[in-house]
Amino acid sequence: MNDYYIYIVFIHVLSAVLSVGPLFVLFAVLRKMQESDRLLDQTHISIFRSVVRLIKHAGHVLVGSGVLLVVFGPWPWHTPWIVMTIALMVVSIFFLARAFSSTLKKFDDLEADRVFLIKKLRKATWIYIILLVLMLALMVIKPTMW
Q1: Is the N or the C terminus of the chain less surrounded, counting Cβ atoms within 10 Å?
Q2: Angle between the 114-141 and 23-35 helix axes, to the nearest 10 degrees?
Q3: pLDDT for 26-57, tens place per residue?
Q4: DSSP conformational letter for 38
């Protein structure tokens, strides 16, 4: 293994933390949205969008560093935990692209059911956390599946 491999691992782990950690802030934002009136929605939505943007950019670093780890590391691309991680990553990318933006846009509609939209955002946040934790588990445990 190369000397710089450990630095790539560090960048990969740091970007994983930045991809998962901020999601938990969203629960506080969602709680505030439930307690507040429609006037503060845009402030909360702005925070929500900023967190999602941070998660996306950390995800880019995560993917890039992951590719470098496979290229320079001891595991081939066809390793089961790598294949499953990539599959979950593809699912999570599509989920992230569709789950949050469309729901956040619906808050602009004054007729929209805020309670339903907040519940939908909470559910989407949990689903995304579960997807990321599954990927994290695969990368840490490195199970032999086939």
Answers
A1: C
A2: 170
A3: 999 999 998 887 777 888 999 989 999 999 99
A4: G
